[in-house]
Amino acid sequence: MFCYTGDICTFWAGWDFTAEARASAGGTLALTLDPIPPRVIGPDDRRAHYMLGVNVDYPWAHGRGSGLVVSFEQACPQALTLTVTPDTLRPVLPAGSTIPAALASVPTQALVTAHVQSCPAAPGEAPASVEVRFTVEPPAPGSAEAGGHAHDTARPKGTLRRDGQPATSCTAALDAEGLGACTFTYQPSEVSGGETIKAEADGFPAAATPVTVQVPGLRPMPESGIGAWRLTGATGAHPGSHYGTPETVTRTAAMATDYFALHGESIGVNDISLVWGGLFDIGGNWVPPHLGHRIGRGVDIDRCAQSLVKQDDLDEIAEFYSGVRTVEKALAPPGCPGPPDTPRIHYDFP
User: Fold this and answer.
1) What's the CA gap between 91 and 278, in Å, rounded?
2) CATH tag for 79-213 (out of 3.30.200.20, 2.60.40.10, 3.40.50.1010, 3.40.50.1970)
3) pLDDT band at 76 (very low <50, low <70, confident <90, very high)
4) Can you give the C-alpha Rg of the chain in angstroms?
5) b or e along 103-123 (b: 16 or more beta carbons within 10 Å of the residue's beta carbon)?
6) Could you read off the pLDDT of 160-196 as tens digits, one per residue?
């Protein structure tokens, strides 16, 4: 572009047509031109004027501006975005689970909305619609979003639903301005972690939004500064298995400290919960039996300290701190002589 006499600008544009266009014998050739920036008019300018000069030399036209239709059209935005409300949920718990009030108030499903922006409808044309397709992607094993699971077998994922039925797509009806949206619900599985909801539609850029599934507020059980307890039970599939509510961590530490003061032995604090709670599949196969270790309130104590744990004494101390002993199904014989009801002693704290 160049300007002369102070207020008249001439714009020259050239195109390199494809071989197919060069071989055309006639008709209207559609050209796509980058946006032309407007010239800033100063206080001394009397007028602004653009002249488009097109030089063509093709079989159907020779010379300047002859037999060639050039049209300018406003660029059409193509946008696809996702929003999720709320973006943090709790995992699904087994039927019959006792759920504390604070945890019961955490939602178990989210509303996901796909927002679409496209071309406004042309005069006389009905608004279009856009089909949006969805998938749920689980986190990478061992990542910060994996919820404490380092194994990579077929991990359960959350589900997408519309009108109560499983769904993989929804249709956004566009209005006269080219805007539209459609919604669906996301429901997590029993497994905690960070998942990604992805969306795609033909002719649109892909979109994604994260959603977090967790039992909120869990914290790690620390090491004992005086050797009153030891952290045991971690495995390669679940390297961190000692996360509990603040109250459970405090009460477990107090219980172990009292036992240590009474007998001079450090007890082994086995599993509590994973970092974000939820399903704790000790076999690394996404199924129980660790049913009592999902919300950070159940604690397993090894039957052997330096000698066999004195069951009656530990029960009495646990009861003082509001712990209730639960006999779990035996998984293996205990590691030292004693009643063979379970290889560990399980307590639930409020």
Assistant:
1) 6
2) 2.60.40.10
3) confident
4) 34
5) beebeeebebbbbbbbbbeee
6) 999 989 999 999 999 988 999 999 999 999 999 999 9
